[in-house]
Amino acid sequence: MHLDPFELHRPTTVDEVVRLATELAGRFDYLAGGTDLLPNYKMHLNAKPHLVALEDVRELRGHSDSRLGAMERLADLEADRTFGRTHPGLTDAIGEVATPLVRSSGTVGGNLLVDTRCFFFNQSYFWRSSLGFCLKADGDRCHVVPQAERCYATFSGDLAPALLVLDAEVEVAGPSGRRRLPLGALYDPGGDGIRRTRLAPGDLLVAVHLPPGPPGRRARYKKLRVRPSYDFPELGVAVAGAWDSERVRSLRLAVGGVETLPRRFDDLTDPLVGTPLTPEAVNRLADEVQRRVRPVHNTFLPPDYRRRMVGVYVRRAFAEAREGSAG
Ligand SMILES: Cc1cc2nc3c(=O)[nH]c(=O)nc-3n(C[C@H](O)[C@H](O)[C@H](O)COP(=O)(O)OP(=O)(O)OC[C@H]3O[C@@H](n4cnc5c(N)ncnc54)[C@H](O)[C@@H]3O)c2cc1C
Ligand code: SF4
To answer: Residue 37 and residue 283: Cα distance in Å, rounded?
Structure first.
């Protein structure tokens, strides 16, 4: 496997990035840590002739308890113990991304925008050519849902569910200016495994903002994967909330790794606010989330198994959040 030639651009400010994005419209990708993008380029998966490296853009760096620069490396967040105590669920998720080596280059922005995955797509050119390619790259049909005109590749980032339950917002800069939107609004429910976000061409993720949580908030992220030291999620469940023996004061639950998008289940958790979080309530919630998710057969583990594990992982996440200390 080899990289085809590309031209590398190294802007140093967000304005310069946006100017380049406008100039190179449709012919470039942003390069953060490159841990997802470059392996895909080596497999000739939708490679572009230009790469805009974000490494030298200072505004994209740095973190505090309330702001994560898009170019902040996962290993730098992991090493910050104060941050870990403030955001326990998010720290669970960061520590579960790939391997320490990948986390030393992989960034927050790259993780939120990591490409969707499918075992008919994440393959060499030769392997894919023998099958006739697919909708997501070079072809015109889907091997997972053959009658479909959309792609079902799975969203496989660990940070998104953990950030969704913290009500994170993303700051975006692009040819049409700067804006801030809830993280949930970044992912497009009307999209698919190919067009998965609402970002316009050239939009750059600048930072993630974390609003202050309710006092005593607890959070947890639980991940199912085949090899615990290495693999992408086959399922990721995040919970965050504040509750005591009397009643729930706030509650969020999000699931990733099973569909084309990570998603939150506010219509199931909002009615629990003001009521006691009994084992029966957690069981009902787990059963309903499990009933709603729709994995397809495009990752290593069979979809029925992944769906059944959703319920198990929701229960586990709550059990551990109950025991863990409040963030
Ligand atoms: C062996 C291996 C195992 C892995 N396991 C996991 C895992 O378990 N969980 C997981 O979540 N990920 C996993 N990954 C994927 C990847 O390493 C991580 O998601 C990582 O955080 C991606 O960050 P990056 O900076 O390297 O992104 P890049 O590869 O540089 O970029 C990823 C995508 O995001 C876009 N992008 C990056 N930054 C911006 C920005 N600021 N604005 C707009 N677009 C941007 C790029 O153009 C590209 O499309 C794994 C990768 C490997 C190689
Ligand atoms: S879900 Fe279908 S279209 Fe999408 S990557 Fe897999 S085979 Fe290709």
So the answer is: 39
- Among 242, 224, 244, which Cα is nearest to 234's? 224
Task: Output the CA 311–ligand 1 centroid distance in Å.
Answer: 27
**Alpha-carbon span 175 to 202, nearest angstrom:** 7
Sequence spans of domains, the chain: 1-322
For residues 110 and 40, what is the distance between their CA atoms, to the nearest angstrom? 13
Contact 314, 282 (CB under 8 A): yes
Cβ(93)–Cβ(208) below 8 Å: no
Phi, psi at residue 97, to the nearest 5°?
-75, 120
Q: How confident is the model at residue 46 (pLDDT cuts 50, 70, 90)?
A: very high
**What's the mean per-residue pLDDT of the chain?**
96
Which class is 1-322 in CATH? alpha beta
What residues flank ligand 1, with Cβ below 6 Å?
A: 29-37, 39, 54, 70, 74, 97-98, 102, 105-107, 109-111, 113-115, 156-158, 204-205, 231-233
Report the sign of the C-alpha dihedral through residues 119, 121, 127, 130, in that order. positive
Contact assessment for residue 21 and residue 174, using Cβ atoms and an 8 Å cutoff: yes
Measured over the CA atoms of residue 304, residue 227, residue 191 and residue 48, the dihedral's sign is negative
CB contact at 8 A, 71 and 54? yes
Question: How far is the centre of ligand 1, averaged over its atoms, from the C-alpha of 95 (Å)?
Answer: 14
The pair of three-digit structure tokens given for residue 199, joined into one six-digit string: 């970002």
- Residues 6 or more apart from 30 whose CB is under 8 A from it? 17, 51, 52, 54, 204
CA distance 252 to 168: 12
Written as one letter, the residue type at 305 is Y
Q: Is the pTM of this model over 0.90?
A: yes
